[in-house]
Design brief:
Elements lengths: L2 H18 L3 H27 L4 H38 L25
Helix pairs in contact: 2-3
C-alpha cells in the first residue's frame, strides 16, 4: 500500500473511532466472535436436520434453523458488519491519486484572494 493510501485509510479509521469509540480491531474482533457463535449454531442445526426421521421434519428443522441463525446474526453480527461497511464507504469516497502522474493541488478557502479589475 502506498504511504498516501495508508494515511487516508488510517485517518478514515480514526475518524470512525472518534465517532463511536470503536477501533477497527474492536469491530473485527466482534465480527470474529459473531462468526464463531453463528458457526456453532449452524452445526447444531445441521445435525438436527441430519438426524430427522422424515424429510418433513428435516425441512421444518431447516426453516427453524435459518430463522434462528438470522436472529443470531441480527443480535451479534449486524452492528459490527455495518460498521465495517460504513468504513468501506468512507474509504471509497477518499481521493484517488495517480502516483505516476504529476499533480497540482490548490488549497484554500473559496473566494479568497480573487482579483477585481
Amino acid at each position: 500500500m502506498h504511504p498516501f493510501e495508508r494515511v487516508v485509510a488510517d485517518l478514515s479509521a480514526r475518524s470512525r473511532q472518534k465517532k463511536d469509540g470503536l477501533t477497527l480491531e474492536d469491530v473485527l474482533n466482534d465480527v470474529n466472535e459473531a462468526r464463531k457463535v453463528i458457526l456453532e449454531a449452524g452445526k447444531e442445526w445441521v445435525a438436527k436436520c441430519k438426524h430427522a426421521e422424515t424429510a418433513r421434519e428435516a425441512g421444518e428443522a431447516r426453516l427453524e434453523g435459518i430463522e434462528y441463525l438470522l436472529n443470531l446474526y441480527q443480535q451479534f453480527a449486524f452492528e459490527p458488519v455495518s460498521g465495517i461497511v460504513d468504513l468501506q464507504k468512507g474509504l471509497r469516497s477518499a481521493p484517488v491519486i495517480q502516483l505516476d502522474t504529476p499533480a497540482c493541488v490548490l488549497v484554500g478557502v473559496p473566494n479568497v484572494g480573487c482579483v477585481h479589475f
